[in-house]
Amino acid sequence: MWEVLMQYNGDSLYLFAFALCLGLTVFQGKKRGDGIWRQAAFCALLVILFVYNGVSYRIAGKITKDIKTYYRFFWMLPVLFLIAYQATLAFTSGQKKKMAIAGMLLALCVLVGGNCFLSKKNIRRPENIYGIAQDAIDVTDAVMADWGEKKGNPIVAFDIYLEYQTRAYEPRVVWGISRKAYLYQAQHGYDGKKYRKEQPVIAAVNEGIKQNSRKLARCVKKLGIDYLVIQSAFDMDDYLLGMAAPVAASENYTVYKIE
């Protein structure tokens, strides 16, 4: 039971505040004689029986696979509601002394708590707020770092899946393949009559096809492409030798700079 109590901010002052508020509720109920102290004591007993114990934790684990995430909701309900109840009474009593004490206790729980949500660790702007794939982030950062302070925007050829992610992350990156050419190739293959100068580039970045490196080099030059980004599994280093050199890599892609 103690291990369950200590989980999810259990080592902070919230449990202390919960116990204090519970005791205060019982005391107030006895003083008023309205029987609320019996309800508070009964609720505390129910909380111990059904929430703060290892058996309940294991039962909840049978219901959901992610028990470490969902158990915190069971943990916080009785704690926060009882604290909020006493805080509301204090702040609506009109007595400055009670309001000051309640405010100080709440501030103490927040600031001194072991896993305080106001810590530097937890308050920060998310680094990846749009859920961009890590490959797209690493590839784009590598391209922009290598591009540096050059005028204009880097023109990069990569597969359409990476293109969606990259353009959302860094709009300065220009896709070196027209969308119409990519869709045309998907329908007609690499022997279509249209978009001939883009077909070798699409074949290289989309499927790692190694047909004619000289033809690919001519197409890359005509399209003004600065970088090729190709899945590392395609092993294109030797094929692109003399045309492009690898300058960076993500988990699944390699960035080649056109020479």
Explain this structure:
The protein has 259 residues and is an alpha/beta fold. 56% of the residues lie in helices and 8% in strands. It contains eleven helices and five strands. A five-stranded mixed β-sheet has the order 2-1-3-5-4. Helix 7 (134-147) packs across helix 8. The mean pLDDT is 78.
- Strands across the major sheet, in which order? 2-1-3-5-4
Look at the structure and give the mean pLDDT. 78
Described by strand count, sense and barrel closure, the largest sheet is:
5 strands, mixed
Radius of gyration: 31 Å
Coarse structural class: alpha/beta
| Percentage of residues in DSSP E strands | 5-15%
The percentage helix is: 55-70%
Number of helices: 11
- DSSP strand tally: 5
Give the SSE map:
Layout lengths: L1 H5 L7 H19 L3 H15 L3 H10 L3 H26 L3 H17 L21 H14 L7 E3 L2 H10 L4 E2 L3 H10 L10 H9 L5 H11 L3 E5 L12 E6 L3 E6 L1
Parallel strand pairs: 1-2, 1-3
Antiparallel strand pairs: 3-5, 4-5
Helix pairs in contact: 2-3, 2-5, 5-6, 7-8
Features:
259 residues, alpha/beta, 11 helices
Task: Provide a brief overview of the structure.
It contains 11 helices and 5 strands; from the N terminus they run αααααααβαβαααβββ.
